[in-house]
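Regression report. Comparing outputs from two consecutive submissions.

Submission 1:
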Amino acid sequence: MPTKEAAQARDRAGEPVVELTDVERVYRMGNNEVRALDGLTFTFRAGEYWSIMGSSGSGKSTLLNLLGCIDRPSSGSYRIRGTEVATLDDDELSEIRGQHIGFVFQSYNLIAQLNVLENILVPLFYWDEPPPDAEERARMLAERVGLGGRLEHKPNELSGGQQQRVAIARALVNNPAILLADEATGNLDSKTAQEILALFDELHEEGKTILLVTHEPSVGRRAEHTLRLSDGRIAEVTHNREGAST
């Protein structure tokens, strides 16, 4: 992160970023009711690095979708930096996503027709008034993730690890309150995965708030803390010596 943003992140350390209170997400499948999240109450604070784990069907993907304002709770309260999200309409949710949330996906989700610089800038395309230094910021982030010399390359000209680095830079371009990563190393070889995780470690050290969904215990332990879900409820909270020391 640029030095000014790192300083701002340190100033906010410990403040509530995400507050969930009695959150439920219920899906109806025919006559059946599925409680993907069942009365979840939790607070994620600025500067924390969490892994979110659980078996298939535990609710971790549903939680990530709610945190990312892709979905909304059936009931309960979800606040991000003090703003109640659960009752917002679609346009307001889009605004929250654009201003406060950064996403890193397993499949990168880059736009094939755009080059590295343009892909990094994509989140700002949806702002009513993009910041005047948007391109300069995107170039700085490309340098930050080691791709300053590849700005004109298209995704098909990059390795998987390089594409994921572009995705991380894209996720940071709006200076989000929270960085959400969904199985971010799932498509990478072990060496490249370690490089991406090292980058997350650096971002955490600079004050970024990171929530990383993973099914891999070794990846989960890289985070400071682990939230384990089961049947839509919190089954366990652990504090990882390995993650806390990075």
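Submission 2:
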Amino acid sequence: MEKARTLACDSIIFDLEDAVAPDQKGEARRLVGEALAAGGYGQRELIVRVNGIDTPWGSDDLAAAIEMNPDAILVPKISSGAELERIASKTGNVTLWAMIETPRAILNLQEIAERRARGVRIDVFVMGTNDLAKETGARFVPGRLPMAAWLTLAVTAGRAYGIEIIDGVYNDFKDLEGFAVECAEGRDFGMDGKTLIHPTQIEGANAAFAPGEAEVEQARRIIDAFSLPENKGKGAITVDGKMVELLHAEMAKRTVARAEAIAAMAG
């Protein structure tokens, strides 16, 4: 937790669930509370992952996490919209992230995401690919073909309701080449980032999910072109010899916003 104050990551997840042995749950809860109270994490988002609400530790974790006032609470094994809504009723205005890591969650992605439209403050899906593999028997293979449907469905449901999607972990933290390939894969699926299990993975994730300099420059040209008086009200224009539409302008704005956020974090 001390080292995390110096790492070039966007968000830090303080885990009270899988990474903590049952007889250490209370101590972990205390240590995380002390760390968040001490601060010093800069602009990094601080997220507390609690144990499931139906476990012996879930209610205490949730109450403690609310008191810690993190940027979000990450809730594991959300499998239905009703479960998410039940937890949201206990957390008030605290933002929620949801682990998507059960077969039922995949089947119920739309109803889970749709809760955002009903006022539930759910901002992010985190793909729990390890748990999904365990529950289904799917294997991790290059390209993740057995998981492709789950990943694309989560992206589709998230985008439909304005929820961001973070890809699952890559287990072999020493295999940086394989990690880079999977990061690029997640980016191409349309995900917003990747959960990490070791500091050596930060650089590769940042490289994969940060827009490149040329991409940012092109995005700025598209935004500037649509802002010209002669292009006001047009649905499609030509930029650098190519036709671009208003949807490309919206994509360009997201690219520039992401680049500016990364620059602010680096500063």
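Expected: both submissions complete independently.
Actual: both completed, but the second showed a warning that disappeared on reload.
Relevant detail on submission 2: DSSP finds eleven helices and nine strands in the chain.
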